[in-house]
Amino acid sequence: QVHLKDTGGGSVQPGNSLILSCQFSGVTDSSDWCLGWYRLAPGKEREGVATLDSESDTNYGESVKGRFTVFRDSIKRTLYLRMADLKPEDTAQYYCVAVRKVCLKYYLSEPTSFPYWGQGTQVTVSE
Questions:
Q1: In sequence order, what DSSP letters do the residues of 33-47 get, joined into one string?
Q2: pLDDT for 80-124, tens place per residue?
Q3: How far is Cα 114 from Cα 103, in angstroms, rounded to an integer?
């Protein structure tokens, strides 16, 4: 059974950085899987942040390109999201997601593409 546990959220000031972690279990070979992050802000729809299905094949949402980096440690079975230059509009609940398929770019706009979700971790960016 696939289980995702996302952690690392917190409250930071604008311009600061934060790293989220997602420990995944039940994924026998992570190279067969598309892993990623979604976020949900109050009053908004779920937004795709980033996906990764190999060490070099990544996709990012337009609002985070150049600021966020997704990567993983396959030995530790952990997915990460390094967030830099955080802005108030990055405030949201962040969710780790997974599907046993090669990542396609449209997965960032179709949250139903991912059957597995973590419980979420809150990121708040404010003065």
A1: SEEEEEEE-TTS--E
A2: 999 999 999 999 999 999 999 889 989 999 999 999 999 999 999
A3: 10
Phi, psi of 111 (to 5 degrees): -60, -25
d(CA 27, CA 65): 27
Rg (C-alpha) for the chain, rounded Å, is 13
Q: Which of 4, 64, 6 lies closest to 30 in space, CA to CA?
A: 4
Round to whole Å and give the CA distance between 11 and 56.
30
- CA dihedral (55, 59, 60, 65) positive or negative: positive
CA dist., res. 41 & res. 87, Å (int): 13
Q: What percent of the chain has pLDDT over 90?
A: 79
Specify the pairing of strand 34-40 against strand 47-52.
antiparallel
Cβ atoms 20, 83 nearer than 8 A: yes
Q: CA geometry: angle at 109 spanning 116 and 21, to 5°?
A: 45
- Closest to 45 measured CA to CA, from 9, 8, 93: 93
